[in-house]
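Late entry, written up from scratch paper. The run itself happened at the end of the previous shift, but nothing got recorded in the book at the time, so transcribing now.
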Amino acid sequence: MTNITFLNVSIAKNFLNETLQVLNKTREGPVTVSNAPEVPLWLQHAMLTLYLTLLALTILLIAHYIYYARHARVVEGTLGDPPVDTPLSIIIPVKNESIETIINAVRRLAELQCSNAEVIIVSDDPPEKVTEMEKALAGLPVRVLRRPNPTGYKGTALNWAAEYAKGEILLFLDVDSVPPPDLCSRARAVGEREIVFLGWDGYAAVKTPIAALQLFLYKYLLYYVAILGRHNTRHPVFALGSGIALRKSFLKEIGGFCNCTADDYDISMKAYLNGGRVVYLPGPPVYVEVPAGYGAFKRQYARWTYNSAYLLAQYASKIPKLKMPFIHKLSVFLNIITHPLMIITTFALTVASLAMSYMGILLPPFHILILQMALSLLALVQVFYVYKLAKQDGHSFAEVAGMLAKSAALLLALSPYLTFYVILGLLKRRIRWYVTPKGLAVLKSGALGLYEISILATLAIILTAALYVANWLLAINAAMLLAIASYVFFRIAMPSSQLGRVLRL
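Output as recorded:
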């Protein structure tokens, strides 16, 4: 028999009573430090109301992710009877891409031995570049088309190429995509009035901290949660930019791709609004290259953020008119609003926390405390469900928690920059499309630019000012934010932009 002795933990009665008394005070209002600066009561109430609203929205966002994470599991593809040998056109848009990248894309498709299919490269490059491309691709099964008037965004190039395509079914791929072996059969399974999406996962041409973080997020939050979780709950799925197929007749019916940067989400909304649907067909995903450099990642994430905000402004009033159950309408809304809401709440909560620290608020009112506790609990539940997915690949709980913490830190450091793009999207202001560089080319941009230096300088000034006026609560908060930003820029961003530290995978 083994004797088990438990630690005898005692809590002083006075300490417990004082803690309960402090918590009881929060029922009447915030608990502030003794030397708190004078702040108008209306401003304090406004700040706390804003903080409460942001907490509630963040809880809603995490809760909907947890719901899909609970249903995230790989399902076997069932195409039923083999699709007929319908003529298929695979369209790949290119601009400012290296010849080697384009050749590799065509060769990958040639290895699939997809019968009765054509590959079209639609280029917006100068005539001399297209001539060089045609010479390099001679002997490969591909047609190269150049738009005579290469204006507008990617969507206009896709619409133009679709007019010249011979196939009844159109399959759109990015030049850096690695297609699954059953690409053609799954594309040909598309219905008359639907868009087929083949799923996404990531790969990296080079190994960097940014690349490692994205590969983790692509697999366990994008592929498993946002795609498989939605599919398994039979909730609406949105197609992403590479690996989508639809019939030429349906593309014309819904008006084609938009002349905007959000062409993939826009075409999905058009399908739903016109009584069609977007279908994820289970099977191996399309692998897309994640930007391994910090600068390329920042630009791509800014574009994705803008796209979601643009779609929200474009379609928010039309979502209630969708012919689908209310819960599906809510799912569509949350899908579109995820990036803008996540970014705005992160930025606004950061500003609100600094403002509350300045006002000397040690503890917010009781109802806000309850929401803070609920948010912390939901965050732990989210980590647990992501861990359940990742442990199948040998990831430990500490690794999963570390990856999610790095992701949160990166989002916090970039939230002011990304908030600017949310505003541009909501105002429907056009932005410039930057082609994401491939391979080692993504590492040419530096890590510390004007934005990064401005963030560090601003936080350092706030910390210095707080120390000067002996506002220790504000100083602690500013010091924590400065430490997070410094970690992101010097430990994640900078190593991701230095060639000397990069190893090929």
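Residues 202 and 247 are 27 Å apart (CA to CA).
(Scratch paper discarded after transcription.)
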